[in-house]
Specification:
Domain AB hydrolase-1: 20-141
Number of domains: 2
Distance between the termini: 11 Å
CATH class of the largest domain: Alpha Beta
Keywords: Hydrolase
Helix content: 40-55%
Strand order of the largest sheet: 1-2-3
Number of helices: 8
Radius of gyration: 16 Å
CATH topology of the largest domain: Rossmann fold
Number of strands: 3
GO molecular function: hydrolase activity
Shape: globular
Protein name: Hydrolase
Pfam families: Abhydrolase_6
CATH superfamily of the largest domain: Alpha/Beta hydrolase fold, catalytic domain
């Protein structure tokens, strides 16, 4: 099992309103407006100036519809507290996180790793929440090393 830039906690106070504001933006101004507002905090601050990366991420967002985005947001808002499940996971597990992931911070992944008997933590340097596209070589190397060790 590989989990990258993730979390286990139920919805936090104020999260519904924050996420609904993004849904409203997508529905009223379109997916391009959503991409402009939502993506910058998702990546490492130094990557915001990487025009190629930001264009690729924006194109990814714009391939979706406001309706599909609303569905994703709803799934996140209705997620259960998964903390009780962690200790029951018995398979080798890789937890990967960008060191500067502001949405799913390193401390959360460290806590998850402590609760999982076979967890291994990989931290991707100079990387935010979009680790597979911000640091593809580091993510690939971590996955390859973990699979070879498992």
């Amino acid at each position: 099992l590989a989990l990258l830039d993730t979390g286990i906690a139920p919805r936090r106070d104020g999260e519904r309103e924050e996420r609904q504001a993004l849904v409203d933006l997508a529905q009223t101004q379109g997916m391009q407006a959503l991409a402009r507002a939502w993506l910058p905090p998702m990546v490492h601050p130094a990557r915001i100036a990487d025009a190629g990366l930001m264009q690729d991420l924006s194109a990814m967002v714009q391939r979706q519809t406001a309706q599909s985005f609303a569905g994703q947001v709803n799934a996140l808002l209705e997620r259960p507290d998964a903390a009780p499940v962690l200790a029951q996971i018995r398979c080798p597990t890789l937890l990967g996180v960008g060191r500067q992931d502001a949405w799913s911070p390193l401390a959360r992944h460290q806590d998850m790793a402590r609760q999982m008997p076979q967890a291994r933590l990989a931290v991707f340097e100079d990387c935010g929440h979009m680790a597979p596209v911000e640091a593809p070589a580091a993510v690939t190397a971590a996955l390859r090393d973990w699979l070879q060790a498992a």
